[in-house]
Design goal:
The complex is a heterodimer of chains A (235) and B (457). Chain A contains six helices and 14 strands. Chain A is an alpha/beta fold and 235 residues long. Chain A has one domain: Rossmann fold. Chain A has a six-stranded mixed beta sheet with strand order 2-1-3-4-14-13, with no helix packed on it. In chain A, strands 6-5-7-10 form a four-stranded mixed beta sheet, with helices on one face. A four-stranded antiparallel beta sheet of chain A has the order 9-8-11-12, with helices on one face. In chain B, helix 5 links the parallel strand 2 and strand 3. With 457 residues, chain B is α/β, with parallel strands linked by helices. Classes of the chains: A alpha/beta (235), B alpha/beta (457). At the A-B interface, helix 1, helix 2 and helix 6 of A face helix 7, helix 8 and helix 12 of B.
């Protein structure tokens, strides 16, 4: 199994680097390919089983869009072909239609693979949590973001939100799922925080694996799920 | 109208300060908050001291401010400062107004004010610092501080061009702060062992800010603190005006070289983060004209404040309490690393590092734990690790992912009386690492351990 981790040296803002580490520990035989921002992605000439990219600063996000733009069609082909992809935090925004960087007064087209737009404002920080359903799975996580996403994801949302917000404060649908591409504003340790989702994600590659340190991960997950569902917990 | 608002704000603030003191409470924040709420430009209306020094940066603000205060006070100055108060806008305003007359005339010649980076835009436009020292800019609470680009942007937008900035040359991010300021002084620490070229996986800078090429480390101390050069252009870490050339842990001294002179000072604490803080303080004090002899003498009487670091021997027990700033992965990583190297070949670590507020009617974001380096806990001298707090299960998972032997770990989801889990018959070297807001609870646990040490139970 081959997993490409895109631009891990810069897309690691909120502990996101440990998602790749958790995959490595869950799949000890998998080959993890870490592609730096200055190199041609592995997926250009090969078909990895999974691609992962984590959260980043806005400055890096603009460089990432520039780095991926030449490979937009290849990415679309891989998505259509069912390659598993997980983009956390603001990584998925790079695939969207357009980003307005309000504070920096920059307008930039994303790759346009996802028909949504983004507004990023350094003076509007949103911190929160989201709990939602991906099929039968309860997926939960944390959010700390300057951006909100706008548009219609009714037909391809990642999560139906039970608590917290979706694409933006008015939305109850979080993220995007296109075939096996998952884009979510949840950031940081989404895989170790969601061992069942980790196992599900791996199953989409055609393999089965138990999440690393499953008893400990499930212990932490179940406690957090209980806390997220507690009506006293503020969102 | 604005002046009238200022006097109303001053009266209300002074009155609130009197009231708070009568109630036996600290007047280091609320009066300032009242003042800036009534009069937005309150700080701007106040007369400033002759020399206004501000201290900012991710880590080391309080230690540096305290050190500057100690040296200046020892040299005979009465220093306006917010050491015991808040470092946000209200705290800065409170420190200034409490040292001003009703008409706003400042009473002291000099002020040392710690300023939270996020408050820069609410403070510097209303008071231009003569000197600003920044020890480092690195990843911090993701909720408040987001990332280093954001924090640098805020500071750069707020600091006036007239300010002389004292920057850490070994912090390639912080060293680029305030491009608008012409007057800059750099400090750093020479390539003393154990310098290395590999640091934490998650770094806040990888590519050259000038050409986008890959930065190469000559050596690293921690995170991105070290010496850098670009592989593709002439960009490199700036030269150091004040340089720590020697750290003699055995003798308890460190030496700073500047313009061909070298002076030796008492090493108040040997943690590398503090050596940077000490060097920055020396640089700033020299820049404002304090003689070396005065600085050397004052360092002799200086200790880290007891609320941040303390060591107590009680019977057979050696109890060390160290601050580990929660939600700040670099700071806690440094504390883990430092503790692993501390004395004791069979240590017990009691960790109270969860956020206090975020676990009340909320669930703390654990993102920062995944930037935190748990590998020092694998050190063979660390024999027992007790995670106390609501997030203890998350710590166990992170520790497991880092290769820590799970049989060494004990957990409890309550902080109160967590020290009861320490086997004092088995462990004599006990390290209590605590988040700032758990200070009272940490002191209580320390006291319990001291009592057990003294009674031999």
């Amino acid at each position: 199994m081959t997993i490409e981790v895109l631009f891990a040296e810069v897309c690691n803002l909120c502990g996101d680097a440990q998602n790749a580490e958790y995959l490595r520990q869950t799949l000890p035989d998998a080959e993890l390919i870490f592609t730096p921002l200055t190199d041609t992605p592995y997926f250009v000439g090969h078909t990895p089983d999974m691609i992962y990219m984590g959260n980043m600063s806005e400055q890096i996000q603009r460089r990432v869009i520039g780095a991926l733009r030449p490979y937009k069609d290849r990415l679309q082909t891989l998505i259509d072909g069912g390659t598993v992809m997980l983009f956390t935090g603001n990584a998925g925004e790079t695939l969207m239609k357009h980003i307005s960087y309000v504070t920096e007064k920059i307008e930039l087209d994303g790759l346009g693979i996802i028909d949504l737009t983004v507004k990023t404002d350094w003076f509007k920080r949103y911190n929160g949590k989201t709990l939602g359903k991906c099929g039968d799975l309860d997926v939960l996580g944390f959010r700390s973001q300057f951006s909100m996403v706008y548009g219609d994801n009714a037909g391809n949302a990642f999560l139906k939100v039970e608590r917290g917000i979706g694409l933006n404060p008015e939305s109850r649908l979080e993220g995007v799922r296109m075939n096996n591409l998952f884009c979510t504003a949840l950031l940081g340790p989404i895989l170790p925080n969601n061992p069942l989702f980790t196992e599900y994600l791996i199953s989409l590659t055609g393999q089965t694996a138990k999440a690393a340190f499953r008893p400990q991960a499930m212990d932490a997950y179940e406690q957090r799920l209980k806390e997220f569902r507690d009506p006293k917990t503020e969102f | 109208m604005d002046k009238l608002k200022f006097y109303v704000a001053m009266a209300a603030a002074k009155l609130s300060a009197v009231g708070l003191r009568l109630l036996g409470r600290n007047a280091s924040y609320l009066p300032g908050l009242i003042a800036v709420t009534i009069c937005k430009n309150f700080i701007g209306h106040l007369e400033k001291p002759e020399t206004l020094i501000c201290v900012t940066g991710t880590n080391g603000k309080t230690t540096t401010s305290n050190l500057l205060n100690t040296v200046l006070t020892n040299s005979g100055e009465k220093v306006t400062n917010n050491s015991f108060g808040s470092n946000v806008q209200g705290g800065v305003a409170a420190a200034l107004l409490l040292n001003s007359t009703f008409t706003g005339k400042h009473k002291n010649r000099i002020a040392v004010l710690e300023v939270d980076e996020r408050s820069s835009l609410l403070v510097y436009p209303f008071m231009a610092p003569d000197y600003l020292i920044c020890n480092n800019i690195m990843r911090d609470s993701i909720k408040r501080n987001a990332h280093t680009d954001f924090i640098s942007h805020i500071i750069n937008s707020a600091v006036p061009a007239t300010t002389k900035v004292v920057l850490n040359a070994d912090d390639i991010i912080g060293a680029q702060l305030c491009p608008q300021c012409e007057k800059k002084v750099f400090f750093g620490v020479d390539a003393l062992p154990p310098a290395k070229t590999e640091g934490m996986k998650a770094r806040d800078i990888v590519y050259c800010p000038k050409c986008g090429g890959r930065l190469e480390a000559e050596y690293l101390r921690y995170n991105h603190i070290g010496r850098w050069r670009c592989a593709d252009c002439d960009f490199a870490s700036p030269e150091r005006d004040y340089l720590v050339t020697d750290v003699d842990k055995a003798a308890g001294t460190f030496t700073v070289a500047h313009e061909g002179e070298a002076h030796t000072f008492k090493l108040v604490n040997d943690n590398i983060v503090n050596i940077y803080n000490f060097c920055g303080a020396v640089a700033l004090l020299r820049e404002i004209g304090i003689p070396y002899e005065t600085i050397e003498t004052a360092f002799q009487d200086t200790e880290l404040v007891k609320t941040r670091y303390d060591h107590i021997e009680a019977g057979k027990l050696r109890i060390t309490r160290i601050l580990a700033k929660g939600q700040n992965p670099v700071a806690v990583s440094r504390t883990f690393s430092y503790t692993a190297k501390c004395p004791g070949d069979k240590k017990c670590l009691l960790l109270i590092i969860d956020d206090k507020e975020d676990n009340v009617r909320n669930v703390e974001s654990t993102c920062w734990l995944y930037d935190l380096d748990y590998t020092p806990l694998k050190d063979p001298t660390v024999d027992c690790i007790i995670f106390a707090g609501k997030r203890c299960k998350d710590h166990v998972l992170r520790a497991a992912m880092s290769g820590v032997d799970l049989s060494k770990i004990i957990t409890t989801d309550t902080v109160k009386n967590c020290s009861a889990l320490v086997d004092t018959q088995k462990y004599q070297d006990i390290y209590l690492l605590f988040e700032n807001y758990w200070l009272d609870e940490a002191l209580a646990e320390e006291k319990r351990l001291v009592e057990r040490g003294e009674s031999g139970t």
